[in-house]
Amino acid sequence: MGDDGRVTDDPTEHDAHPDTVAEPSASATADSPGKDAPVPVRRLSALLALAAVIFGLDLLTKILAVHYIDPGDPISVVGDTVTLTLVRNPGAAFSMATGMTWLLTLVAVAVVVGVVRIGRTLRSGWWALGLGLVLGGALGNLVDRIFRSPGPLQGHVVDFVSVGWWPVFNVADSAIVCGAILLVALTVFGIEPDGSRKTDSAGSRKEAHQ
């Protein structure tokens, strides 16, 4: 207040720069996740959901095949070209590596663990699709190797679909092959699990140096 009784503005009561906007603190920024933060969780959920569907379908079809198909009497679907033929397979997909059942079981376990770990940071829907197919198929055949005869880690996988000259296979085999083909294609086209492209990142780095 001045000597004449009028109220005067005290310059100390105002900011030196009234137009300056206070920046959020580092801790506030760290505690406020971006809007894209939930994406990896959604991708992992989709991956696991697809894997569960593939696993359930594979398990159901194997139970039906064992119950209804006589190993010595294939069921014709399309003449002699497509038949349902029950086969106990000690090897990998499409009857490969028949003498290494225990090793294939350990490989399947490693695949399952690896897919789940990758899925935790996954942002690409296409990668989620491919990995979901591989995971579901790996789990389907892994259950056979653990729980079916002749014993744990030595169990024979149930195959029942025969198409022409192609080796007899099952739903899990089909899912693994389709998923693997998709993952190879994504890699060839430079699509990363986080949704980015190799060409885009290389171009960004090139522009940054210019």
From TrEMBL:
It is found in: Cell membrane. It is an enzyme of class 3 (hydrolase). Residues 1-36 are annotated as: Disordered. Its EC number is 3.4.23.36. It holds the Pfam family Peptidase_A8. It catalyses: Release of signal peptides from bacterial membrane prolipoproteins. Hydrolyzes -Xaa-Yaa-Zaa-|-(S,diacylglyceryl)Cys-, in which Xaa is hydrophobic (preferably Leu), and Yaa (Ala or Ser) and Zaa (Gly or Ala) have small, neutral side chains. The keyword Transmembrane helix applies. GO terms for biological process: proteolysis. Its main location: membrane. One of its GO terms (cellular component) is plasma membrane. The keyword Transferase does not apply. The active site is at D159, D173. Residues 1-20 have a biased composition (Basic and acidic residues). Pathway: Protein modification; lipoprotein biosynthesis (signal peptide cleavage). The chain crosses the membrane at residues 44-69, 92-113, 125-143, 163-189. It comes from the Bacteria. It is a multi-pass membrane protein. Keywords: Aspartyl protease, Cell membrane, Hydrolase, Membrane, Protease, Transmembrane, Transmembrane helix. GO terms for molecular function: aspartic-type endopeptidase activity. This protein specifically catalyzes the removal of signal peptides from prolipoproteins. Belongs to the peptidase A8 family. This is Lipoprotein signal peptidase. It comes from Rhodococcus rhodochrous KG-21. The gene is lspA.
